[in-house]
Amino acid sequence: MQIEKQLASLEQSKLLVEAAERMGVELLESYFWWNAEEKDIDYWIDGKPTFNTFSLEQRAIKHGMSYPAYSVAELGMMLRMGMHRSSMNANEEWVVTFMPLNSTRTDGKKDEYMEMKAPTEADARCKMLTHLINQGLITKV
Fold first, then answer.
1. pLDDT over 90 for what percent of the chain?
2. Which of 16, 39, 70, 129 has its CA 20 to 30 A from that of 27?
3. What DSSP character marks residue 24?
4. pLDDT at 79 > cutoff 50
5. Is residue 139 part of a domain?
6. Domain membership flag for residue 67
7. CA-to-CA distance for 59 and 123, rounded, in angstroms?
């Protein structure tokens, strides 16, 4: 299995980071990140997870512009405030269905489930997280 299939794409990662910055949401650190200049995936490996000592800003200074390449598991951790399910449809697209656990709506409307589709599970989860942040439904991960 290729690791790239388990990580959010550079395009989806950029959209997620931009949404989080715009809405003031602090994202979790990732074990992997995209080096945008080289369109390649980088990671720290020295026998221990030294990547946690570097912020995204420090990586950008050291490696050129970087974006987190969140894994399926990391994205699942950030979607934990709701019930979500991933499945593949008949068109071989990944579908992530999300239902908020605790509604914070004040307008009396009921929260309904949402769906996002993408070629990989990581991109579908990343699209969902980006959508929820853009809609103000996630303010903290």
1. 34
2. 39
3. T
4. yes
5. no
6. yes
7. 23
Beta bridge partners of 67: 34
3-class secondary-structure state, position 66 = strand
Residue 41 sits in which domain range? 3-134
- Residues 129/113, Cβ–Cβ less than 8 Å: no
Q: What domain count does the chain have?
A: 1
Please choose, from the candidates 104, 31, 118, 7, the residue with its C-alpha nearest in 3D space to the C-alpha of residue 128: 118
The encoded tokens of residue 116 equal: 């996002």
pLDDT bin (cut points 50, 70, 90) of residue 108 is low
- pLDDT (0 to 100) of residue 111: 61
Residue 42 has pLDDT above 80, yes or no: no
- 140 within domain boundaries: no
Longest distance between any two alpha carbons in the chain, whole Å? 52
Strand partners, 57: none
**Residue 28 token pair:** 């979790």
Looking at the domain assignment, is residue 85 inside a domain? yes
pTM for the full predicted model: 0.75
User: How far apart are the C-alpha atoms of 3 and 81, rounded to whole Å?
Assistant: 26
